[in-house]
Amino acid sequence: MNDTQLSTAATSPTATAGSEEYLRVNKANWDDRAVAHAASPDYSVQHFIDHPDAISRVVRFDVEHAPGLGSLDGLDVVHLQCHIGTDTLSLKRLGAQRVTGVDLSPKSLEEARRIAAAAGHGDIEYVESDVYSAPEALGGRQFDLVYTGIGALCWLPSIERWAQVVAALLKPGGRLFIREGHPMLWAMGDHPATTKRTLRDDEFTTPAVEFPYFEQEQPLVFDDGGTYVETGHEFTANVTHEWNHGLGEVVTALLNAGLRLDALVEHQSVPWNALPGQMVEIEPNEWQLAENPARLAATYTLTATKPADVDDAGSARLTAPEASASQGPRRRRHRTNPRPERPDVCSVSPCGAGEHARRTPWSESTRSCTTGPRSSRNRPANRP
After folding, report:
1. What structural domains and CATH numbers belong to the chain?
2. Which of 105, 151, 203, 226 could bridge 380 with an S-S bond, Cβ 3.0-4.6 Å?
């Protein structure tokens, strides 16, 4: 597949949600990028190693913004789709008694184990598994908290299956915490003003709805030779299979799995420059639309609990607050250079994008999509 052709993979039976082809393709993509990510200054791995109180900006946002991650003291936590584990390490440093990271990519887990050991947390357990196989891979264990960082759900073909996995992994009374890119954002294309493949900020026009908002059986197939961190590495496994999931689909799947929805907060900001030329950095590594940011829900945070006594039908009730909208901080002037100027981890004050940052404007992205025109895609970068 070259960078001037639209992929035909999504019309093939092997690319549908019911096949295992997406696992093979996405696993190869993340294996190819694991070492480069760990070596990139954007992950600031050495900072994690040198500073025992450093946590990722992704986790710091979860702690400081509604509805809040809450206390992890003494909890048994599983982190799904953990990649190289900087967010996983952050959860341990926030007081969790036991932390287990799960990821599809063995190369990512090699880096995660190395980082954890060098940072003095070799007791973090890392398990190789795709999300749907996690209950079996973890030996039927159940946890106080299932944590999923930003940029995870797009790699999964079925949100219903994901919700069933979450329910299986939670102890009675255990809770789910996830901050994720909003499906409204995932449906937006960059709508370039030129036909060039790699665009400057000033070459983008108004974002347009180009991709499905709702879950589809067939994946969006992209061919992207870049990545979301600064690196000179040339990659060879560049195809990914991805899906969007509507917000209602996510909520309904969790309710059907027997969970109780506790909070749903929509945010105007996202921890990477998802729409180049349209966004401003309002705090380190948090971006929102430069003009009238209330137009776009960029991310959301959802928390849910597995009741101690779920009824036979597996239903759960929707509790207040059903949903709330974050107004976000005040806008700042548009920066001429959107690239982060500091490490993506922090000690007391946050300063990082964590392992779930997206493909950013400085990657040499050469994507093509099965469902629409060529686009410098604003899709996330996490694992199935």
Report:
1. 9-356 (3.40.50.150)
2. 151
